[in-house]
Amino acid sequence: MTGDLSITSHHDDHRAGSRRGVLGPPIPRAAALVEQVPTLSATRMTLASDTAATATRIERLGQYMTEHVLGPSGSCVCRRLGSCRQSVLSVRRGTSPRTATFAAGQLSHVGHHYDLMLDGVPMRTLVIAMETGRAREGVTLKQRHAEVMQSASLAFTARNPHMRGVTSALRLALGQEPGPDRAGELLRLNSTRSPVHLFDAFAMANMRLCSAVVSGTSKSLGNPTMSRNCAPHLVATIKILEPTLCIVQGVEVYKALTTLMTRRRQVAPSLERARIAGVDTLVAAFTHPSAMRLTDHWGRLTSAPYLYGTVAPTLRAAHQLIATPGVQRSKPVGPQRRPRGLNRQPPT
């Protein structure tokens, strides 16, 4: 489909390493689910957003972050901050602390139209990466939103590889195809007069809300201690945002996320149903868009076999499963508890 996304029928340049094949630990066979991905009919769908529900989520997330991560003064109040700082310095013994920069308190992006509805079915997309890789401290929710919307104002080719990958993923998640055209990034919602950019209709949270880098570069010095310490903040974020689709960017991000996942049921090679923080969601796990190896890189549209061979079919399947929530599933393989339906109620 060409034209804007009228459906009617950060720089987070974390160059994560990658492996060929399955990202992170494979799902045990007994927990796999043989599921028939439905085929969408030619009937077009209506697209709308619940901005009141999103505003409530942003307010609740802001309250949590103010209490647990970034205080009103702009300083980081996380009780694990000292542990994270020390973990960066201790693994770099023998080098001057001046060679490492630790930037604390870099909060998430939540688009003002995050609560999308496809024919009344919730379509809440959360992109999960590792860290911003920037030296800027004390980035609020509002500031992070402004940063992402600044990227939205750029042409596709002017964005960094990470945000180009995000663009392609969001287009695919909404049933479209990757492309550089501006019109293909615009949503026509029933509830708005003007088109809404894709970047204002999703959320993006990092596994780590602090960045540790080699001074003067974006080379990460982050480590598993930082990921573990920050996990409760990601849990709180997911509880509040209640995503129906999580798009995970990076092998190490996915490995860390699996420690928070239960009731995992694989529905495609890179797609599974899981419960995270009490929220039933689809999880699509990929390499990072800016991965160094050509076979894993998908932050561009040409010479990107991973984009067309892995990302595209996975997110098409995710779109179909979300858009047809009543599809019949086959029985799970082996004894296990079946997940409940997706939580479609906004927080109160």
Strand arrangement within the widest β-sheet reads: 3-9-6-11-14-13-12
Compute the average pLDDT: 83
How many strands?
14
How would you sum up the global shape? globular
Through-space gap between termini: 37 Å
Question: Hey, roughly how much beta strand do the residues contain?
Answer: 15-25%
Q: Count the helices. How many?
A: 7
Helicity, as a percent range: 25-40%
Largest sheet: 7 strands, mixed
The radius of gyration computed from the alpha-carbon positions, rounded to a whole number of angstroms, is 19 Å
Low-confidence stretches: 1-34, 38-43, 328-348
- Sequence of secondary-structure elements: EHHEEEEEHHEEEEHEHEEEH
Output the structural class.
alpha+beta
Provide a concise account of the structure shown.
With 348 residues, this protein is α+β, with helices and mostly antiparallel strands.
3D architecture notes:
- There is one protein chain.
- This protein has 348 residues and is α+β, with helices and mostly antiparallel strands.
- The protein is built from 7 helices and 14 strands.
- It has helices spanning 51-68, 81-90, 141-152, 161-173, 224-241, 251-258, 305-323; strands at residues 47-49, 100-103, 109-110, 116-118, 121-123, 125-129, 186-187, 196-197, 203-206, 211-214, 245-249, 261-268, 271-276, 279-286.
- The strands form 4 sheets. The chain has a 7-stranded mixed β-sheet with strand order 3-9-6-11-14-13-12, sandwiched between helices.
- Helix 1 packs antiparallel against helix 5 (224-241).
- The protein is globular.
- Residues 1-34, 38-43 and 328-348 have low confidence and may be disordered.
